[in-house]
Specification:
By secondary structure, this protein is an alpha/beta fold. It folds into 2 domains: 177 residues, Response regulator (Rossmann fold), CATH 3.40.50.2300; 157 residues, Response regulator (Rossmann fold), CATH 3.40.50.2300. Strand 9, helix 7 and strand 10 form a beta-alpha-beta unit. Helix 3 runs parallel beside helix 11, helix 4 packs parallel to helix 5 and helix 6 packs parallel to helix 7.
Length: 368
């Protein structure tokens, strides 16, 4: 009998360990994220609180579970690795909170479609909506409908025009976009040994996230690498235009040494523009660890590195904030996850940090 008791006790201890934070300690953002200073301010100029400080206690978790709440996720675009990681994290964390996800929408970068999506999900009567506005001005009236219906709002990266934290929405969570811009500039500077001529392919839109990345990259190059000259900048609205922007830039400046693209999808466009010109010596840096750019980095291609967002844990943070809002508890107006500097040397471990999963086999195979 004593032996049976000891075995049962051991099993209980193992369950407590394996269950981790959700079994006995509520839910928290992992403390294994990088310990880096956060440079970004929020869309309303708020100083960032670290997402690593967010957690739900066991008592809070049980209270949320008892509420049988519903949530909806209203995306600007759901077709990239970043969006999928956020959605996965929200689904998984809400499931632990016994919150039913009644809808996940994809606006395909259309403000009109997102406004329609909001009205559609409101018919499902969610208690909370987690969203990233396509356009802060054009979608504001649609999000106001949700506010007036008593739905709690948590935002990714940006907020609708005229909205106030603690009144119209609970909080906004983003990556340290400025910090990631700094990381991308540092990689460019290191790869060029501090000198050369480069171009910038930027997002020509009133968008808080990409504006911070652009500003950080340009400021870091200008201040820290005086012998690197930014000779041309080209903007796009639709990411599909990035290839044409880069082609035109290279036609006018065929001796460019490097190009920075403001996120991974435009960086793929830059890559497709450079290849036909026979320039296999171009240095490309970007932001966001998408699978295609990660594969190019792993292969030793022209994309040499990037500043990575950590979307999985950003999604966990957003779900925790949603839970706090449902309980009527105050949170900080703006949270950020730290920046992550990624090169070929740390790509595999960085993938696990970013997505909370192992890197795809096609990437891992490049290291064999």
């Amino acid at each position: 009998m004593k032996k049976l008791f000891k075995i049962s006790s051991l099993i209980l201890v193992l369950l407590l360990v394996i269950g981790g934070s959700t079994f006995a300690q509520g839910i928290s953002v992992t403390d294994e994220l990088p310990d880096r200073d956060i440079y970004s301010n929020g869309p309303r100029g708020n100083k960032a609180a670290s997402a690593k400080t967010l957690s739900l206690s066991e008592d809070e978790l049980e209270e949320i579970k008892a509420g049988n709440y519903k949530a909806a996720v209203v995306m600007h675009y759901a077709g990239n690795d970043w969006s999928r990681a956020q959605i996965d994290a929200l689904r998984e964390t809400f499931e632990k909170m016994n919150i039913e996800v009644v809808a996940v929408t994809d606006a395909q970068f259309s403000a009109e479609k997102q406004a329609s999506d909001i009205e559609t999900v409101m018919a499902r009567q969610p208690d909370v909506i987690v969203s990233i506005p396509v356009d802060p001005t054009a979608t504001a009236s649609a999000f106001n409908l949700a506010v007036n219906s008593g739905i709690k709002l948590v935002f990714m990266d940006n907020v609708p025009a005229g909205f106030s934290p603690g009144e119209d929405y609970a909080s906004v969570v983003s990556a340290d976009n400025y910090g990631n811009g700094v990381a991308s500039a540092e990689i460019m500077g290191e790869e060029l040994n501090g000198e050369g001529k480069i171009g910038i392919v930027y997002h020509d839109a009133d968008y808080f996230v990409t504006a911070q990345r652009y500003e950080a990259f340009k400021t870091t190059i200008t201040e820290n690498y005086p012998n690197i000259e930014i000779v041309e900048e080209g903007g796009f609205n639709d990411p599909a235009e990035a290839s044409n922007v880069a082609s035109s830039m290279l036609t006018r400046n065929p001796t460019l040494d490097g190009i920075f693209a403001v996120w991974d999808v435009p960086a793929e466009g830059v890559l497709s523009a450079v290849r036909p010109m026979g320039r296999d010596d171009m240095i490309i840096t970007t932001i966001d660890l998408g699978e295609n750019v990660a594969l190019n980095i792993a292969q030793g291609g022209m994309i040499k590195g990037l500043g990575a967002q950590i979307p999985y844990w950003q999604g966990v943070a957003e779900a925790i904030i949603a839970g706090k809002a449902l309980l009527g508890k105050d949170v900080e107006p703006y949270y950020a996850v730290p920046a992550l500097k990624v090169t070929r040397d740390n790509l595999i471990e960085s993938w696990k940090t970013v997505y909370n999963s192992e890197a795809p086999e096609n990437i891992q195979n490049q290291y064999e």
